[in-house]
């Protein structure tokens, strides 16, 4: 029977595919695909873990004191029986052979299937056995985490199959998103999240449909259910009827035709109707993304998110040489175009393994978005910060490189940043290593920085507006919390005034200014940002063509005339739509 699940539309388009559930567990598990020639190795890992748990349970039973009730021994027998049951072991192997899931993921997927079967049982006693199954599986998962063969390769191939897949989860960690971003998934559905949650940002950047904040989606949807994700309406249709499925297949074809049409613009110069050149840059997470940026027509990298080099590594963080090689690879791939590398921006929704006792004390902070993150974390680890600065400086010998500092808010931080940069240069001089000139910029994502922008411009060569966090902090909205996601409003008058103030002051000082947050890649804000005087936007490569289409049709002189009306309105979004409609009628 067809069922509809409603959530928040965060990435447009239609996706059709079989559901792949990433189940929540008390044990954190890795999710990645394995190459065909390593499937047998993964099955061996699973068998080894199962045998270890069986030996553990047998030893527990053997060592039970004589006065322990026989029910406990019987319970251990039940666990042993479940451990060897074919509905668990053989079906888990099927996930591994057919989908090429790693052992942990396959076991979690099969647990989800069996748990649903237990939930559907009429007998209350049998339903309660689900808890036993969960305990058995978690024992196996813990054994698998002890296996050194579990670490995924960063360049694992993807499984091949006839049907597209759709990812369904309570939430998806950023590290897992990095594993999934080049995978077979054609859409995402999550129980939690808002428009700027990490899952939503990655889905938009990949230009694939997504619905977040769908509450009970991961409980209502079963493994291998056929799903339709309507990314325009924020609806997920589970097991649609043939008529509904055919309608969405037609819509999907139309979307693909539109993408192909936009793709033809990738090498067209980004110039408005009145001759204003606009710089369209790319946001990337890894050196391999640089090629996609060039292919999409980007004229540089406006944001290299270096923190993704630090994530999903089990505490084995990259050293100076590894970072240098990654930055140099990106610089060379951009073929002389500028590359802006942001220093590591960890914390909040992008954690890495803690490195010091000081950070450990902050791990359970009540509000990580306001805690030790971004430049605050880097300054608390001065040796590591200088290590990253040295790697970036060394890469600057191979092309035009700029350094971008996230979440700067205090004058004292600025002084500490430039002191660290000076020491990094001195260390390279002492070691006889070459480096080139770099400009240093600040991310404007804290209201204090936007308000005091003139002081910041005394220190920095350029600024880049991180609109995701700027909106979050201006409106006191946790952008990852679906309970308040509806209050996250980029059109809020206070947000627009901070944007306009920052852009206008940077231009008055003769400093470069760009937007690298989600607003840059959202076509509904293109005219507004152009009206404010912005001429540099950085976004995921997949968004460049659609933004270019928008600005090719824009007249900045006309847009600037609308700006006072929009900034003075109680409902700026409606005022902008009305002004654009009136301008269109005048032209026609």
Task: Explain what the structure shows.
With 588 residues, the protein is an alpha/beta fold. The chain has 3 domains: 118 residues, PtsI, HPr-binding domain (Enzyme I, Chain A, domain 2, Orthogonal Bundle), CATH 1.10.274.10; 280 residues, Phosphoenolpyruvate-binding domains (TIM Barrel); 34 residues, no CATH class. The protein has 24 helices and 16 strands. It has an 8-stranded mixed beta sheet. An 8-stranded parallel beta sheet has the order 15-14-13-12-11-10-9-16. Helix 12 links the parallel strand 10 and strand 11. Helix 23 packs antiparallel against helix 24. It is globular, with a radius of gyration of 26 Å. The chain starts with a strand and ends with a helix. The relative contact order is 0.10. About 3% of the residues have low confidence.
Please give the structural blueprint.
Elements: E1 3-6, E2 8-11, E3 14-22, H1 39-62, H2 70-84, H3 86-99, H4 103-119, H5 124-128, H6 130-145, E4 165-169, H7 174-180, E5 185-190, H8 198-205, E6 210-212, H9 217-220, E7 226-230, E8 235-238, H10 242-263, E9 279-284, H11 289-295, E10 301-305, H12 320-333, E11 339-342, H13 357-362, H14 375-380, H15 382-395, E12 401-405, H16 411-431, E13 438-444, H17 447-451, H18 453-457, E14 462-465, H19 467-475, H20 493-508, E15 512-515, H21 526-531, E16 536-539, H22 544-552, H23 556-567, H24 572-587
What is the gist of this entry?
The chain is α/β, with parallel strands linked by helices and 588 residues long. It has 24 helices and 16 strands. An 8-stranded mixed beta sheet has the order 1-8-7-3-4-5-6-2.
């Amino acid at each position: 029977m067809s069922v509809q699940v409603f959530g928040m539309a965060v990435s447009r388009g239609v996706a059709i595919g079989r559901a792949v559930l990433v189940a929540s567990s008390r044990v954190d598990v890795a999710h990645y695909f394995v190459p065909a020639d390593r499937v047998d190795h993964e099955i061996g890992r699973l068998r080894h873990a199962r045998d270890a748990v069986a030996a553990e349970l047998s030893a527990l039973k053997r060592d039970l004191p004589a006065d322990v009730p026989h029910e406990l021994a019987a319970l251990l027998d039940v666990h042993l029986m479940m451990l060897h049951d074919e509905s668990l072991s053989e079906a888990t192997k099927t996930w591994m052979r057919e989908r090429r899931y790693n052992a942990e993921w396959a076991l979690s997927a099969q647990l989800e299937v069996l748990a649903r079967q237990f939930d559907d049982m009429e007998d209350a006693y049998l339903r309660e056995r689900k808890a036993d199954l969960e305990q058995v599986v978690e024992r196996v998962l813990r054994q698998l985490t002890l296996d050194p063969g579990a670490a995924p390769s960063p360049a694992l191939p993807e499984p091949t199959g006839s049907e597209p897949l759709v990812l369904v989860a309570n939430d998806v960690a950023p590290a897992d998103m990095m594993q999934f971003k080049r995978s077979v998934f054609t859409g995402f559905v999550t129980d939690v999240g808002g428009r700027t949650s990490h899952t939503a940002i990655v889905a938009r950047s990949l230009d694939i449909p997504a619905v977040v904040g769908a509450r009970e989606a991961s409980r209502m949807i079963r493994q291998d259910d056929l799903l339709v994700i309507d990314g325009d309406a924020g609806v997920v249709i589970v097991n649609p009827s043939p008529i509904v499925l055919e309608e969405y297949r037609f819509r999907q074809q139309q979307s693909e035709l539109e993408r192909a049409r936009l793709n033809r613009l990738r090498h067209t110069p980004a110039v408005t109707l009145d001759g204003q050149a606009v710089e369209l840059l790319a946001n990337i997470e890894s050196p391999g993304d640089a090629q996609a940026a060039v292919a999409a027509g980007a004229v540089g990298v406006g944001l290299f998110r270096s923190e993704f080099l630090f994530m999903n590594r089990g505490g084995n963080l990259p050293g100076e040489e590894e970072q240098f090689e990654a930055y140099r690879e990106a610089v060379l791939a951009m073929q002389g175009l500028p590359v802006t590398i942001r220093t590591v921006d960890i914390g909040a929704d992008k954690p890495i393994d803690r490195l010091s006792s000081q950070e450990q004390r902050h791990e359970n902070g009540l509000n990580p978005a306001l805690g030790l993150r971004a430049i605050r974390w880097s300054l608390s680890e001065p040796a590591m910060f200088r290590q990253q600065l040295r790697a970036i400086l060394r890469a600057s010998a191979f092309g035009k490189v700029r350094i971008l500092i996230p979440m700067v808010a205090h004058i004292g931080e600025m002084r500490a940043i430039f002191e660290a940069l000076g020491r990094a240069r001195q260390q390279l001089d002492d070691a006889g290593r070459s480096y080139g000139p770099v400009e240093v910029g600040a991310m404007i994502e804290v209201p204090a920085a936007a308000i005091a922008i003139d002081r910041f411009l005394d220190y920095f060569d350029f600024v880049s507006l991180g609109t995701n966090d700027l909106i979050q902090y201006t409106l006191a909205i946790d952008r990852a919390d679906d309970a308040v996601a509806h209050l996250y409003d980029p059109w809020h008058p206070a947000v627009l005034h901070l944007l306009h103030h920052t852009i206008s002051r940077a231009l008055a000082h003769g400093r470069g200014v760009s937007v690298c947050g989600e607003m840059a890649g959202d076509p509904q804000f293109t005219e507004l940002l152009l009206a404010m005087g912005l001429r540099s936007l950085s976004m995921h490569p997949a968004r460049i063509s659609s933004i270019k289409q928008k600005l090719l049709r824009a007249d900045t002189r006309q847009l600037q005339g609308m700006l006072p009306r929009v900034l003075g309105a109680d409902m700026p979004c409606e005022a902008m739509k009305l002004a654009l409609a009136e301008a269109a009628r005048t032209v026609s």
